[in-house]
Design goal:
The complex is a heterodimer of chains A (about 130) and B (about 260). With about 130 residues, chain A is mainly alpha-helical. Chain A has 2 domains: about 5-100, Alpha-helical ferredoxin (Fumarate Reductase Iron-sulfur Protein, Chain B, domain 2, Orthogonal Bundle), CATH 1.10.1060; about 105-130, no CATH class. Chain A contains 7 helices and no strands. In chain A, α3 (about 45-55) packs across α6 (about 85-95). Chain B is an alpha/beta fold and about 260 residues long. In chain B, the strands form 2 sheets. A 4-stranded parallel beta sheet of chain B has the order 2-1-3-4. Chain B has a 4-stranded parallel beta sheet with strand order 6-5-7-8, sandwiched between helices. In chain B, α1 crosses α11 and α5 packs across α6. The radius of gyration of chain B is 18 Å and the shape is globular. In chain B, α10 links the parallel β7 (about 220-225) and β8. Classes of the chains: A mainly alpha (about 130), B alpha/beta (about 260). Chains A and B meet through α1, α5, α6 and α7 of A and α10 of B.
């Protein structure tokens, strides 16, 4: 891929997230705080590096996109106000805004249901995993 | 005092207890929750993308309804509170979102974040007062209760301004007011897994087991929450230490002697 496209994708992630990856000082507090750390292939502090390096395609292919809870522990505790959780979400948006890339479709739902599932769970999951 | 009330999707269906006890207790405590007409679902999660506008409009509509009536807006569900409060902050402080949302809305007067958003617990703390609540308790609970805050009530603290995000006290103070003994445990402000429990059941199960083990290990006999999704996830725990989970409004009704009547 050309460097030009890399830069374009990088600036889109920064625009959508409103985050400031260049401020990161690699303290690792975000990854230390993340309740999904064990489930992630790319860890929260590494997300920042991928953006700084312009390697957005790798982020968009990461299984971490489906594991981030948007619980904002990383955002709350970041001493430099980098907002790693918003970067994860922006990468997810870049993926699911493409046709056919939704991480959840209505066809997936019946087998995921049980009688107690609250409406809130379905709403929230669709909002995060699809457009 | 009359407040505009935003119940949210789940309080009309799977979380009816959270709703009806809240309304009954409000009457006993001297305030009224007047439901916003034709409210629409908040979406459950705050849309994080800076370019997402349409998904914030249901919150803006509710906020504007409250503004027109000159009332503060009250929610009971943690998620509704989180989404509406953050959207309100956008409307107040983010010019691009305010302009574009108002372009959609075509209101007589543009909405610019004028409404005050309160969680029911904030009404108890800041408007009623926990000391006044305590005087109205007829049946002090006397049990060891763990507050489960989760994430939505507390973070990001600069915007939701609910309590100290690392060492909150509001629910413990509530527990004391209704005659219970609050139990502090390390995982009370850790996420329950939220929406990942739909697809990632094993991952979510591990998270709630950790919360249950943490609370039970510190001596809690039961947990309380304000969030239907936390309730659902916590109830999925398969830990040997699994504790019963109640909505905070149910224990409030019990302490006020209203539980049997509702």
């Amino acid at each position: 891929m050309s460097g030009h496209l890399h830069e374009d994708m990088k600036s889109r992630v920064i625009d959508i997230s409103g985050a400031s990856p260049h401020k990161c000082m690699k303290c690792g507090k975000c990854s230390a705080s993340c309740p999904s750390f064990d489930e992630m292939d790319i860890k929260p502090h590494q997300f920042v590096s991928y953006v700084n390096n312009g390697d957005i395609e790798a982020l968009m292919a990461s299984k971490s996109l489906g594991k981030c809870l948007s619980c904002f522990a990383c955002v709350e505790r970041c001493p430099r106000d980098v907002k790693p959780g918003k970067i994860v979400d922006a990468a997810r948006q870049m993926l699911i805004r493409q046709q056919g890339q939704a991480m959840l479709t209505p066809e997936d739902v019946p087998e995921l249901l049980d009688p107690e599932v609250p409406q809130q769970l379905l709403m929230s999951a669709f909002r995060r995993y699809s457009r | 005092m009359v407040y505009s009330y935003y119940p949210g999707c789940t309080l009309k269906t799977k979380a009816k207890d959270l709703d009806r006890y809240a309304k009954e207790c409000a009457k006993a405590l001297g305030f009224e929750l007047e439901e916003i007409e034709n409210w629409q679902c908040c979406g459950g999660v705050y849309p994080l993308g800076t370019d997402e506008i349409a998904s914030k409009l249901s919150s803006v509509r509710a906020l504007n309804e409250a503004k027109v009536k000159g009332q503060d807006l009250v929610t009971v569900c943690s998620a509704c509170h989180h989404v509406i409060k953050r959207t309100n902050d956008d409307m107040k402080n983010v010019e691009d979102i305010r302009t574009r949302a108002n372009n959609y809305m075509e209101l007589e007067e543009p909405y610019a974040g004028e409404t005050t958003v309160l969680h029911y617990l904030e009404v108890l703390r800041d408007r009623v007062g926990f000391d006044v609540l305590k005087e109205k308790v007829v049946k002090p609970l006397g049990r060891k209760i763990g507050a489960y805050y989760g994430c939505l009530l507390l973070r990001p603290s600069k915007i939701v301004q609910f309590d100290n995000p690392e060492n909150p006290t509001i629910i413990e103070d509530f527990i004391k007011a209704i005659g219970g003994e609050p139990v502090i445990y390390p995982y009370r402000n850790e996420c329950c897994g939220g929406y990942v429990s739909l697809k990632e059941k094993e991952m979510a199960g591990k998270m709630v087991d950790r919360i249950m083990d943490s609370a039970a290990g510190m001596g809690a006999e039961e947990l309380i929450t304000a969030c239907p999704l936390c309730m659902y996830n916590l109830n999925k725990s398969e830990s040997a230490n699994k504790l019963p989970v109640y909505y905070f409004t149910e224990l409030l009704a019990e302490a006020l002697g209203l539980k049997e009547e509702v």
